[in-house]
Amino acid sequence: MSLSFRFGTVGSPIGTPKPGGSSNAIKFIHSIGLNCMELGWVQSVRVSEETCAVIKSAGIENDVAISVHAPYFINLNADEVEWPKSRKRLMDAAFYGNLAGATDIIFHPGSYFGGVPADVLKVAIPRLAGCAKELLDAGNPVRLRPETMGKSAMLGSLTDTIEMAVQISGVLPCIDFAHLHARPGDGSMNTIEEWTKELEIMKGRLGEESLKNVHIHLSGIEYGPKGEKNHLPVAESDLNMGGLFSVLRDFKAGGRILCESPIMEEDALNMKKTWMQVSGEVD
Ligand SMILES: [Zn+2]
After folding, report:
1. C-alpha distance from residue 188 to each of 161, 183, 227 (Å)
2. How far apart are CA 205 and CA 191, in angstroms?
3. How far is the CA of 136 from the centre of ligand 1 (A)?
4. How close is the Cα of 147 to the center of ligand 1, in Å?
5. What Rg do the C-alpha atoms of the chain give, in angstroms?
6. pLDDT in tens, 160-170
7. Across the chain, how many H-helices and E-strands are there?
8. Which pLDDT belongs to residue 129?
9. Which of 82, 88, 145, 189 has its CA 20 to 30 A from that of 71?
10. What does pTM read for this prediction?
11. For the chain, which ranges sit under pLDDT 70?
């Protein structure tokens, strides 16, 4: 029997044996009992087609599902000069990610630059729709996943990302529950009632199917009035992980849970263990 969620890390695990590299990281992920990984292409996409082929076969051989974290420097609300560069970063991540066997491309949607979210979405959504259409026309099956962001000044509330997904086929949210908890800055979004409400909204707008294929980022998090400060090990944070998992269980959710804690694979394994306790599922 397999679990409803795959568990893994964003970026190569700390314990990846030398000389490292993504294919060794994937083998290591499998060896410690995890089964997904997000390639951290966060500075730039600098990978050859040959390397992508090696990563893809490592994923298949080790039954490790692969996602890509696209470069940080993407902004759907960039000005006319910057936007083509942002777009290229996202499209490069999608092109090489697909070659590397990734099914999902995660990216930070950008900044409001002080604008009203509804107005910013009027700029962001057509741009993202253009990217999704180009991938579809090219036969590239990756899903683009705007991530929920940890600061209130950033494009990327859960509402923003759901709105993008409603309007564009091939787009679904990447739900970073640590970011959603940090974003309001007041310690909210950390209870069963709040998560239940959010997932009801998601189910209502994106359908039950969207809950079967949730892409989650998770860690502990430190925050202030403006939101996220830094990621923490879960045990050093106030995150009610057991409560969150009970909500995911009650919604019969499944997909991937990728750990972004500083102790990476250690917390990813803690997450897997907690999920098994809460859900009663056995590996
Ligand atoms: Zn991210």
Report:
1. 19, 9, 11
2. 22
3. 24
4. 6
5. 18
6. 999 999 999 99
7. 10, 10
8. 98
9. 189
10. 0.97
11. 1
Q: What distance in angstroms lies between residue 22's CA and the mean position of ligand 1's atoms? A: 18
**Which residues make beta-bridge pairs with 142?**
none
In terms of Cβ atoms closer than 10 Å to its own Cβ (0-12, 13-18, 19+), residue 118 is exposed
Q: How far is the CA of 210 from the centre of ligand 1 (A)?
A: 20
pLDDT in tens, 219-255: 999 999 999 999 999 999 999 999 999 999 999 999 9
| CATH of span 5-279 | 3.20.20.150
Ligand 1 centroid, distance to 179 Cα (angstroms) = 9
Q: What residue ranges do the domains of the chain occupy?
A: 5-279
Residues 266 and 14: their CA atoms lie apart, in Å, by 9
Cα 1 to ligand 1 centroid, rounded to whole Å? 31
Q: Could you tell me the distance, in angstroms and rounded to a whole number, from the CA of residue 169 to the centre of ligand 1?
A: 21
